[in-house]
Amino acid sequence: MGPDLGAARRRASIDRMIVAILHVIALSAAAIGIVVVDAWLRRPP
Amino acid sequence: MYTGHVAIALATRGVRRDLPLWVLVLATQACDWVELIVRPFTWRTDTEVYSHAYPFVIVAALVVAAAVWWWKRSVSAAAIVTMVYLSHPLLDYVTGYKPLWLGGPSMGLGVIRRPAADFVVQGLVCLLGCAIYWRSLPATRRRHVSAAAPLLLLLALQGISDLRLESNKRRRERRSRSLGGDRASPTVVAIASPWVTPNHAAAHAMR
Question: Which of A16, A33, B142, B190 is deepest in the core (most CB within 10 A)?
Fold first, then answer.
């Protein structure tokens, strides 16, 4: 494996990690929004 | 699976109103958070084992169940949260490609390799989960526009995710063509997209 391919793999690994974090954070943000909507929909009349 | 996990939490909230939605959401997403937390401390190939495979996932689910039992003093509530937790790796075997147990093989249907099919599968899970949730709302609130918000939000997020997958898939195909062969090596495919794990890449290259 040449040095360029090694660097590319490391960069891709970091990219994968960042995307995975953003992926989970985006879904968590949506879930927080849904929790808020749920509380609002079930508020006492 | 992506948004389908939250849909499972919503469906559970629809049938168990004594369990707060945030607890169910935490339980259903916990595997992915564990994966992110252990990732810096483990080898790339082992990360999913600790977060999604047996026996680790059962140990984590039992810890969460114990916490719920201590809080609610309800065996059924603890059992429900355990099932919600364990639904995560099971659903991931449908859309993804995950290790079964420590040292065991990775397996799964890998629907995620076909983004359009992935959107249909996860969209149906979202539709079903949100329908069960919607039925549990007070009758006067069901017609409110915000009652549709969870479904719309999940479908939008899933659509964005699958569009990104499709875009990356096409980029990989263009790269493999530009490299002069019909089939790129797994290494080349693996570094082409941050959405694809080496296992996915190898499977993709072999197709």
Answer: B190
Predicted confidence (pLDDT) per residue in B113-144, tens digit: 999 999 999 999 999 999 999 999 998 899 88
Per-domain residue ranges of chain B: 3-148
- State the pTM of this model: 0.82
Partners of B54 in the β-ladder: B101
Separation of alpha carbons A31 and A29, rounded Å? 5
Amino acid at B98: K
Bridge partners for B99 per DSSP? B106
Contacts of residue B57, Cβ cutoff 8 Å, sequence gap at least 6: B31, B51, B85, B86, B88, B89
**Interface contact A29, partner B, CB < 8 A:** no
Name which of A24, A28, A34, A42 to mutate to probe chain B: the one with the most chain B Cβ atoms within 10 A of its Cβ: A34
